[in-house]
Design goal:
The protein is mostly helical. It is 75% helix and 0% strand. The protein has helices at residues 19-33, 36-42, 55-71, 82-92, 96-125, 127-137, 140-151, 155-184, 199-221, 227-248, 254-266, 273-296, 298-305, 309-334, 338-349. α8 runs parallel beside α14 (309-334), α9 packs antiparallel against α10 (227-248) and α11 packs across α15. The longest helix has 30 residues, at 96-125. It is globular, with a radius of gyration of 24 Å. The termini are far apart. It is a multi-pass membrane protein. Keywords: Antiport, Calcium, Calcium transport, Ion transport, Membrane, Transmembrane, Transmembrane helix, Transport, Vacuole. The chain crosses the membrane at residues 75-94, 100-118, 130-150, 162-184, 196-218, 224-244, 271-295, 310-334.
């Protein structure tokens, strides 16, 4: 006997009384009991109007849904309120310290959203293209800030930010991964267990880091005219490394691939490829605007607050550019996935 005789069948009515269908039907009933405003603004899994026959309503509902999913993707996104305030501060011409501070905190959540959108697209494109996309956009924020700084003539800031980013990834991030991962996986007796990682990944990345370090030192020690040729060689080597990792010798990175597959199994894509690409474009534009005001305030900030450009480049800008990657590496280390943690930290440095 049907326990709900008055229930009207619709497109959301489950065909079979299995556990998943019962759960879905319970979610629908729960949404119907909640106020419309709550479902519209605070439910990241559903937005009223997505199934509407009216194109305008359906489009607005889809935009609202993508916005909710993006905003609720990370706790640090509460700092997104700093984005419009930082842009207004830079446009109106507030004090250099205020403009720098506001845009500094504005870029941090934008970097997290950029990472989220990149991951969503990568899940749709498969392992090879997804890995290439993550490698390309992993340092997008730093790349944008560096380009803006180069246009503004802040060569010292760009040089120190490159060095600071490498040091923060290799020392701070890797150190936190090893330390926190070891604390969380101490074994039953508390005496400690070993967290394993692929020797092939470690050897390959260490070799590339050594080669990159030598390539950065030689032009400065011998002749700066070698810098452009060195840059081209490094770029070619990085492309070959991607081909080595994703195509020709992907079997050497099986452990890292298995960890990535486990993470994908735990979390399914929450945005479509087109929606994630739209988020990527919007966030890139906002990062460019905030970076413009942040870099533009550096000279006045150095004069007024007695802060050196080396400190800004070595410490502050790497924190902004790598905040999302730092959190990701530590989280996967806490899950005992050290291959993936090393891939995030050392891959960013490379």
């Amino acid at each position: 006997m049907d326990p709900e005789p008055n229930r009207v069948a619709g497109e959301r009515t489950p065909l079979f009384a299995d556990e998943q269908s019962s759960r879905d039907y319970s979610d629908v009933i729960l949404r119907q009991q909640r106020p419309l405003a709550y479902t519209l603004f605070f439910d990241p899994n559903y937005t009223p109007g997505k199934d509407s026959d009216t194109l305008v309503v359906r489009s607005l509902a889809h935009v609202c849904h993508v916005t909710k999913v993006t905003l609720y993707s990370d706790y640090v996104n509460f700092l997104l309120v700093m984005v419009p305030i930082g842009i207004v501060a830079g446009a109106v011409g507030w004090s250099p310290a205020t403009v720098f501070t506001l845009n500094f905190f504005a870029i941090i959540p934008l970097a997290a959203v950029l990472s989220f959108a990149t991951e969503q697209i990568a899940m749709k494109l498969g392992e090879s293209m997804g890995g290439l996309l993550n490698a390309t956009f992993g340092n997008a924020v730093e790349l944008i800030v560096s380009i803006v700084a180069l246009k503004d003539g802040q060569i010292e800031v760009v040089q120190s930010s490159m060095l600071g980013s490498i040091l923060s990834n290799l020392l701070l991030v890797m150190g936190m991964c090893f330390f926190l991962g070891g604390l969380c996986h101490r074994g039953r007796t508390g005496s400690g267990t070993e967290q394993g990682f692929s020797a092939a990944v470690a050897q390959t990345t260490c070799s590339l880091m050594t080669l990159s370090s030598a390539s950065l030192v030689i032009p400065a020690a011998v002749a700066l005219i070698l810098s452009r040729a060195t840059a081209i060689i490094l770029l070619v080597l990085y492309i070959l490394y991607l081909i080595f990792q994703l195509r020709t010798h992907s079997n050497l990175f099986d452990a890292e691939g298995q960890n990535a597959a486990e993470l994908e199994a735990e979390e399914q894509p929450r945005l479509g490829a087109i929606s994630a690409a739209a988020v990527l474009v919007v966030v890139t534009v906002l990062v460019s605007i905030c970076a413009e005001y942040l870099v533009g305030s550096i000279d006045d900030l150095v004069d007024s607050a007695n802060i050196s450009k080396a400190f800004i480049g070595l410490i502050l800008i790497p924190i902004v550019g790598n905040a999302a990657e730092h959190v990701t590496a530590v989280v996967v280390a806490l899950r005992n996935k050290m291959d993936l943690a090393m891939g995030v930290a050392m891959g960013s440095s490379i």
